[in-house]
Automatic annotation (TrEMBL):
Acts as a repressor in the regulation of translation initiation of poly(A)-containing mRNAs. Its inhibitory activity on translation is mediated via its action on PABPC1. Displaces the interaction of PABPC1 with poly(A) RNA and competes with PAIP1 for binding to PABPC1. Its association with PABPC1 results in disruption of the cytoplasmic poly(A) RNP structure organization. The gene is Paip2. Keywords: Cytoplasm, Translation regulation, Ubl conjugation. Belongs to the PAIP2 family. It comes from the Eukaryota. GO terms for biological process: negative regulation of translational initiation. This is Polyadenylate-binding protein-interacting protein 2. It is found in: Cytoplasm.
Length: 141
């Protein structure tokens, strides 16, 4: 907005520029300050394109961070699972001396034939049944 006290019909000289009716002498186009609007659509397209590229980059980085976090959680769960279970450790679990090996062999029981015969006599299985062959279907006749 123009200041009415500065407005006059006679030209005033300010730092070697002549101002007439609020416009400098060098300004031939009174709409010069609005010329940027001429390419506004192209500017908007470029701005939107740039914003879209930045957004896609942010989404990609976020996906990578989620993937890294997921992998880290999987490793952590795997380590916790390993700590929960007792795993076979040869130095701890294998016997150290021949005496210990002999004791383990002595603990093994080999059944005698009389106990096998008792098992067969008490069995509910049909001794006359056909031999089972996987993948073959039998018809009940």
């Amino acid at each position: 907005m123009k200041d009415p006290s500065r407005s006059s019909t006679s030209p005033s000289i300010i730092s070697e520029d002549v101002i007439i009716n609020g416009h400098s002498h060098e300004d031939d186009n009174p709409f010069a300050e609005y010329m940027w609007m001429e390419n506004e659509e192209e500017f908007n397209r470029q701005a939107i394109s740039l914003l879209l590229k930045q957004f896609l980059l942010v989404v990609q980085i976020e996906e990578e961070l989620w993937e890294e976090e997921f992998i880290e959680r999987c490793f952590q769960e795997m380590l916790e699972e390993e700590e929960e279970h007792e795993w076979f450790i040869p130095a701890r679990d294998l016997p150290q001396t021949m005496d210990q090996i002999q004791d383990q062999f002595n603990d093994l029981v080999i059944s005698d034939s009389s106990s096998l015969e008792d098992l067969v006599v008490k069995s509910n299985l049909n001794p006359n049944a056909k031999e089972f062959v996987p993948g073959v279907k039998y018809l009940n006749i």
